[in-house]
Amino acid sequence: MRAAVFKGAGRGLAIEERPDPIPGPGEVVIKVGRAGICGSDLHMTSGHGQQLPTDSIIGHEFAGEVVAVGVGVRRIRLGDRIAPMPFVGCGRCLACQQGRPHRCLQARIDVVGGFGEFSRAGENDCVVLPAELSDEEGALIEPLAVGLQGVRKAAMAVGSRVLVTGAGAIGLATAFWANRLGAGRVAMLANSSRRAEIARSMGAAAFVSLQATEDVTATVNEVLGGPPDVVFEAVGLPGAIRQAIDLVSPLGTVVSLGFCGGEDSFVPAIALWKEVRLLFSMCYDKQDFQHAADVMAAGDHRPRAMITDTISLAALPAKFETLRGASKDCKVMVAPWSR
Ligand SMILES: [Zn+2]
Ligand SMILES: [Zn+2]
After folding, report:
1. Which end of the chain is less packed: N or C, by CB atoms within 10 Å?
2. Tell me: the pLDDT tens digits for 294-316?
3. What is each CA distance from 214 to 122, 125, 217, 227, 314, in whole angstroms?
């Protein structure tokens, strides 16, 4: 098969011929329909911070059709369309049974790779797509599930004023779920207004651009009708947690979803005076995957607004590099079988 292989820090991706994958016990092989490019793919191939293994096939947001099943597979059938979780667990421990394979002590991240024509997946660590869902919506489930987990962790009261900082896919997904799950008003705060239209399609009532705003606190409080009860930080850069603590209301909640590999600092006394509840949210449960699939299958197709381009596998290595800078693209989908 053809696949995009990570050639090591600073060397980007290259299209290579690889053996067709064979399913191990409890695994299936899928023909990849769509695979989304994620900000963490860019981070973890950049040469800074934690890096993905050299010579691996990356891509963890994808969906496709099952074309082979391994020994012991019971739940998934040939022809099912699935969205895999990127971790394959042992299937037996408590974490696996709770649908949290990333907490399994035997979790493997080297099984699944969406930037190829085929990928293996764990039968327990995936959801079957309802017939109404397209492959591209299937490939949106993973980032949507990240946002859903964050919003669930916040346990916000109905009618809460919500601010999301950072307008990447995770921030947009978070705005979507906050809007669906009972927020009063949702506002987004980002460097530029590039994503303002997508944010509105995803359920944000207001969008504040740092470039166009002098007094950020006053503007945020104005568009929300008061300081945010919950701030979701989806920036992932030093200073983002401090900013969230500065903006949140007293007794408010800050949920950090950003993937910041560098050191960060904030002034505890400010958080203390406000009695801020500060949480971190990583990944998702399988239930988050299932709910994201169900919500889109039931007719809420707003997340499609995040998809700004669909490209072939051959076009991926070059496109991947352009996404490292400020790009007008939001979620780019790879269609490995289109020429
Ligand atoms: Zn991702
Ligand atoms: Zn396990």
Report:
1. C
2. 999 999 999 999 999 999 999 99
3. 50, 46, 9, 17, 44
Q: Please provide residue 136's backbone torsions phi and psi, each rounded to the nearest 5 degrees.
A: -70, -35
Distance from the alpha carbon of residue 144 to the mean position of ligand 1, in angstroms: 9
Q: Class assignment of domain 2-132+299-335?
A: alpha beta
Q: Sign of dihedral through CA atoms 244, 245, 246, 248?
A: positive
> Which bound ligand lies closest to the C-alpha atom of 101?
2
This prediction's pTM: 0.96
CATH superfamily of 147-280: NAD(P)-binding Rossmann-like Domain (3.40.50.720)
Cα 61 to ligand 1 centroid, rounded to whole Å: 6
Q: In angstroms, what is the span from residue 270 Cα to ligand 1's centroid? A: 32
